[in-house]
Specification:
By secondary structure, this protein is of the alpha/beta class. It contains 18 helices and 16 strands. The longest helix is centred in the last third of the chain and has 19 residues.
Length: 491
């Protein structure tokens, strides 16, 4: 797939990966083997019919490809850009045994982008059932749940704490990976289903989860607030000016226009030398944003080697091409201050890899006497996130020992009618996994509300016995009681 040249793209926030053209998409689609038992479908968290949409591309039935995609996903143009297909659908593609696997993600993106340009939208006929559903958080889990509940006929309202919708897709992913125009277009598809989005609404402060059920009159609630509370190492110097989390850096730049200061009110002030601690996808975003924000030297510090880096290979390669300096087998042990309590330098220690730890990766061990210092102006932490504590602090909902919302296998929480999914349940994960939990929760919510859903009604456990009325399970609530003059009551 063509990309912007590295020496050009580091001076703008335009998208780096330029996407397939029609010819490339057609050629790539012809590499699909149309497996009789496609493992790629099972590896997709939302079970997209991957061979189905690819073969439609090969037949030049592009609208048909979009129709198949949107049976399972609301966000093809987004997922095609940011999902780790190499670890999911493409990772099990049999073509990859001897060649490069079929570029499923790039084909999904191509179809999604084409749909946006052509104005395609699949909006099923919706008949209102009178149920009101509240969604907390407008990230991928909340969006997926909202779409399915709206299609089922529910009146759906999403509450978003920030002033723009999209959750982590908006504040956490830079425009050079996910343009805001693409996100806005996908959100319009959601609104076209009748979903209302209320921004600047912090649930847990303006009203609680319990109040949503009692006072606001929602019949069911889904919590998809993500896990945006940053982690730090607890080393000396973390309270100095110039120390921040990757979440703060990315939110300032992506959502609040810090790279356009003073035309926007949010300052940044990274200085000339920036060090980012961590080597995941969020770290790659922070490194590459820092370059575009004017830093002259940007360093990635990671206590293991490149082979153990959790970032996508594509993101690592793009960062290397753009001039990021990687300090592998390096761990910071102290942040040093100048006379004004600003960051002056980092004190680090060289590491070596020992035996594997609980994660299966070789454990990093410090090398005695290997300490050294180097000058930096800003230190950015990108070593993971934790659950946002607000919901747990303001409601009686059960949490696990790490502070994440506790759910059962159906994603039901300890409060009747309240479900949760995404990072607030699983911890930090991928966009597509969050969407998968949003759709799973929607299935459970429909069952809880008694809404007919062929995916859940016709299960092996379905019993059309004595309690059934004309073969219909009463829990479906899709029938009404009527009385015919002169006859007994019937259903």
């Amino acid at each position: 797939m063509p990309t912007q040249a590295p020496d050009v793209r580091t001076h703008n926030f335009d998208e780096v990966a330029l996407g397939f053209g029609t010819e490339e998409a057609l050629l790539e689609s012809q590499r699909c083997l149309d497996c009789p038992k496609p493992r790629c479908v099972d590896a997709c968290p939302v079970s997209i019919d991957i061979p189905g949409f690819i073969l439609k591309i090969a037949d030049e039935d592009y609208r048909g490809a979009y129709d198949i995609l949107t049976e399972s996903t609301l966000l093809p143009a987004i997922c095609g850009r940011v999902c780790p297909q190499e670890d999911q659908c493409e990772g099990v593609c049999p073509v990859g045994a001897s060649l490069e696997p079929v570029a499923i993600g790039r084909l999904e993106r191509w179809v999604g982008d084409l749909a946006i340009r052509e104005g395609w939208r699949n909006q099923p006929p919706i008949e209102s059932n009178g149920f009101r559903v509240g969604i907390v958080g407008s990230g991928p889990a909340g969006m997926a749940c909202a779409a399915d509940m709206a299609k089922a006929g529910c009146n759906v309202t999403i509450y978003e704490a920030f002033h723009q919708a999209g959750g982590v897709l908006r504040y956490g992913i830079p425009e050079f990976r996910l343009p805001n125009g693409v996100l806005d277009a996908e959100l319009e598809n959601l609104k076209a289903l009748g979903v209302k989005i209320e921004c600047n609404t912090l649930v847990g402060r303006l009203f609680t989860i319990e109040q949503m059920l009692d006072e606001l009159g929602f019949d069911a609630v889904f919590i998809g607030t993500g896990a945006g509370y940053p982690s730090f190492m607890g080393i000396e110097g973390e309270s100095l000016n110039g120390v921040l989390s990757a979440n703060e850096l990315l939110t300032r730049c992506n959502l609040m226009g810090a790279t356009d200061f003073p035309h926007h009110d949010t300052p940044l002030g990274l200085g000339k030398r920036v060090a980012v601690i961590g080597s995941g996808n969020t770290a790659m975003d922070a490194l590459r944003v820092s370059l575009r924000a004017g830093a002259e030297e940007v360093y990635c510090l990671y206590r293991r080697t490149r082979n153990e880096s959790p970032a996508r290979v594509e993101e690592l390669e793009h960062a290397e091409e753009e001039g990021v300096r990687f300090e592998w087998l390096t761990a910071p042990i102290e942040i040093l201050a100048d006379d004004d309590s600003n960051v002056r330098a980092l004190r680090c220690q060289r590491m070596e890899l020992g035996e594997p730890d609980a994660s299966g990766r070789r454990r990093p061990l410090p090398i005695a006497g290997s300490e050294y210092e180097f000058e930096v102006d800003t230190v950015v932490y990108a070593i993971g996130t934790n659950a946002n504590p607000i919901i747990g602090q303001t409601s009686e909902i059960a949490l696990n020992k790490w502070g994440y919302i506790e759910t059962d296998d159906n994603l039901a929480t300890s409060i009747a009618g309240v479900y949760a999914g995404g990072d607030i349940v699983t911890g930090a994960a991928t966009v597509i996994l969050a969407m998968g939990t949003g759709r799973q929760a929607a299935r459970s919510m429909k069952k809880y509300l008694g809404i007919r859903d062929t995916a859940s009604v016709y299960e092996d456990s379905y019993d059309s016995g004595a309690d059934a009325i004309f073969g219909i399970d009463p829990s479906e609530r899709t029938h009404v009681r009527v009385r015919i003059p002169g006859e007994t009551a019937c259903q």
